[in-house]
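Entry 12.
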Amino acid sequence: MSRPFGPTIPRLMLGKALREMRERKGMSREEAGENFGWSEGKIRTIENGQVGVDKVDLAALLALYGESDDSGELDELRKQSRQRGFWVKYGPVQKTYATYLDLESAAKKVSSFDLAVVNGLMQTPEYARAAIEVPAPGIGPDEVERLVQLRAVRQQRLTADDPLGLWAILDEAALCRVIGGPEVMRVQLEKLLELADLPNIDLQVVPFAAGAHPGTWGSFTLLEFPESLRPPAVYIETRGGEIYLEDNAEVKRCNLSYVRLCATALSPAESKKLIRSIAREL
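Predicted 3D structure (tokens):
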């Protein structure tokens, strides 16, 4: 099964190659930028894979560093880094959501905590449909279907040849909240049990009996990437918009909260027992 991806991976690879060339030249970012009237920040964003470069700028940087691209590999990365994301075929999405899709497509592991609903990577189409349209009155049926299809495409990575690692922690509230009706919810719980059997997925539940825990502040997602690409990042979805945390100290605090959630939650085996118990009551 092919892996959907956006421009992030080639952009990060190109940025890393350019950084290594600059370092071999013994040149600082400030010195490199001065040659083109660019700020140090522009060189940094290129090297960090936050932005791409055009053909002219790539040629200028290679000339400055005394490097060549005889194989055309760097120019191919440049072209790929400027492509549109895989989600475009499903229609327009908000810029902040597109950013998340881009990051998720480049990630090697996603560690999520969800307080109120099942994580999108684990939703059935029927559950996803109800979870999207009910909280967002006014959204059209066509847009709902596009978003449902997009979630299904994202889920392909869980069963790909090189699968995405997923560590999902759910609050018990997400399991007891009947979204879409009892039958839809029962099928959703059965889906969770199926996914929990996959070797690349760990599923835990924080029971009501745990009381207050680090996740009561809200849902969040930790994204880890191949070491050669970029440092980890945190994604937080709010009513006021999406938040991305990339500062090392902030990411460490979120990671510590996640470690504590893992310790608070039931074991994977006990979590499956709880899910089965809730499903039987529907």
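Annotation: DSSP finds twelve helices and six strands in the chain. The longest strand covers residues 165-171.
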